[in-house]
Amino acid sequence: MNKNTIWAGVLCAALFTSCNQKENTKSIVVKNTLDFERTSETVELSKSFLKIEDLNTIGIKDVESGELQVTQTVDIDGDGTLDEILFQPTVAANSEKTFDIVTITEAEKPKAETLCYSRFVPERTDDYTWENNKVAFRVYGPVAQKMVEDGKPGGTLSSGVDAWLKKVEYPIINNWYEKNAEKPGAYHKPSPEGLDNFHVGVSRGVGGIAVKQDTTYYFSKNYTKWRTITTGPIRTSFHLEYETWDAGGNQIKESKTISLDLGSNLSKFVTHIEGTDTISAGLTLHEKDGEVTGNDENGWISYWQPHADSEIGMAIVAKKGTFLGFEKYDTEAKDLSNAYAHLKVNNNEVVYYAGFAWKEAEQYTTPSEWENYLTKFSNQINTPLKVSWAE
Q1: Could you report the per-residue pLDDT of 361-383, keeping only the tens digit for each?
Q2: Residue 223 CB-half CA count within 13 A
Q3: b/e sequence 100-117, b meaning 16+ C-beta within 10 Å
Q4: Range 93-114 average pLDDT
Q5: Which Pfam families does the record cross-reference, listed alphabetically (predicted)?
């Protein structure tokens, strides 16, 4: 056999292998139908959609650039089996992008810092705290509640959501709690990383819920149980449960899953609730020296206010069909003045987004910048990226 015949055979074998691999490669198309580039927006690919048994071995490759995307796998229900894989594509305005679903080893996976982080904090009573590269929050547990009910100092009785004002992109939760353990109240003092000087009290803070009966708002006490679902480079999420509570004679059963994605100023609240057809998610009015604005068409309410020697904007956003309107509720009772977004409950569930922007963090520094962000965010959740199999 001559050399030409051998090389021809090798070439045919290589072409056959290449063609066979291409036939076995699955590709998805991510389509953006809006007139702006989409970034910091998470695509969820479920195990059932992919029809793949082991998500640990999956990579997502940009066909155009050949680059593997940063991904995160999630076990949603805590049964030990991975349920979905997340990634954040960049897709230009009114365009689509193709990604190959490929098999990779652990060593081949792109590395990324865990910027989306949350945890239970037993060293500070029983806070539950979460953050990403933009914002941080916390809520309060049953120990903090009992301390107040027993007349002990240091407790907190509130189902409102606290805002931690960070101005760095790296995680600060563990650092701040460590400093607080060494010197109580340390994170209330200004530092290059920011500070906690946001007062919640019994207010709704940034997105706590209430049920309105006639002219009165009712709400739960502290959460009773928690479960961390995931932390990672793209998303952190966790589950909270509450004792059944009374709303003007109606018994309310409430639990929720809260998540925060990389690059977002708004946490997602998926609340399971029984006993009411509507809820109201609130923003504390603090000293009532700010301005409440809202947009029924785009489904958001905002409160921009002076805050210490700076300014802060807070907001709630919900999809069309869920957002029913908004109200400024002003009362002389301490901490009970809130701006409320009225939201529709569908099949015992309501989904909304709540968060903030602190001027010192230099993300959104004016009310108009903040409101433009909210309108853009509304467009994204009402017109999500479309994912389909490539033909």
Answers
A1: 999 999 999 999 999 999 999 99
A2: 26
A3: bbbebeeeebeeeeebbb
A4: 96
A5: DUF4861
Residue with tokens 């009165």: 216
Residue 351 lies in a domain: yes
- The length of the chain is 391
Q: Count of CB atoms within 10 A of residue 130's CB?
A: 24
CA distance 15 to 32: 34
Phi, psi (rounded to 5 degrees) for 62 = -70, 115
Distances (CA, A) of 8 to 5, 13, 19: 5, 9, 16
∠ at Cα 121 (117, 125), nearest 5°?
A: 155
* Whether residue 213 is found in the same domain as residue 314: yes
Residue 391: per-residue pLDDT:
83
- CA pair distance 316, 334, nearest whole angstrom: 22
Do 41 and 145 fall within a single domain? no
Q: Are residues 145 and 45 located together in one domain of the fold?
A: no
DSSP state, residue 140: -
* CB distance 219 to 256 below 8 Å: no
| Containing structural domain, residue 41 | 26-111
> pTM of the predicted model, to two decimals?
0.93
**Which of 77, 111, 145 marks a domain boundary?**
111
Total of domains in the chain: 2
Is there a single domain that holds both residue 67 and residue 85? Answer: yes
Task: Report the CATH number at residue 362.
Answer: 2.70.98
Question: 5 in a domain, yes or no?
Answer: no
pLDDT confidence of 24, banded at 50, 70, 90?
low
Question: Whole-angstrom Cα distance, residue 318 to residue 378?
Answer: 7
